[in-house]
Amino acid sequence: MRASWSIFSGLILVLAVAPGAARAQVSVPTGLRTVAERLADSRLPSGATLAVLAFRNDGGRTDEFGRFLADTLSTQLIETGRFQVVERSRIDSILEELRLGDEEEQVVDPKFAARFRGLSGAEYVIVGSLFYARDHVALNVRVLHTLTGAARAGSSVTFRLGADGKPERGDEMSRTQSTAGVNLTLRNCQAFNLDVLCIADLTWTGPTGRLAVLPGTSVGVLGARTAAESLTLQDVSVPGRVNASFVVPQNGTVVAAARFPRVLRTSRILDSVVFRVQTPSGETAAFEFLRVAVGR
Length: 296
Fold this sequence. Notes:
By secondary structure, the chain is of the alpha+beta class. It is about 25% helix and about 40% strand.
């Protein structure tokens, strides 16, 4: 089965990637939003339960970027309001229980599909293939029925590469809010066992003064709020200098880190992330970001 599945996946990938050079190249958030909207507009039944598996690179393996894309697409699909989406942590637990050595290949095999469907409730699984080229990365996504393995929908998108040679994750993945003279950019929330560490860049546009992240910084998950266990600020111009607050020059930037303990028991999506900041002018500002996906 492995050979036939690989050939089948390869043929689809070639068909999706062949026109890639002529297709518009987009940032990651724009591309994933497009994929989610296409699937929402497809013939998949409204309310269907989907499980998004980690995407594979052209070597047939999953990598950090493939897992990031799968997690983010899960969030985008939830935001369409048309589907139920199985949490990635639940998928990992089920695959481990079933001892699947090759999740994409075996989960659609009739021998395994019924058990996977019974444990996860997923009527469909979404699988994806990544093709890395010199100046772009192409993603091909397929929606497979868990009982038959038949493809029910699909989409493809081409991500452009930035100056660093990596796909552009775009400003939507590093969302920014501004108030009271502070621009706060939330750019990374990562899982560490059950804890989550969120990173934010804070730029001050007023006169030189002391900027601080306050204890009210917290996350919301399934109606409960969890305060940050630790808060640090780091001056990006002086590596290694870390404190709970920092003197920041006009138009200067500091990096804030907040660790939230034991918040990943049920979901890899944070309902909200709130940073409370005291500005050099003495004002207190709150920045709230909704529906934040947690990477690995």
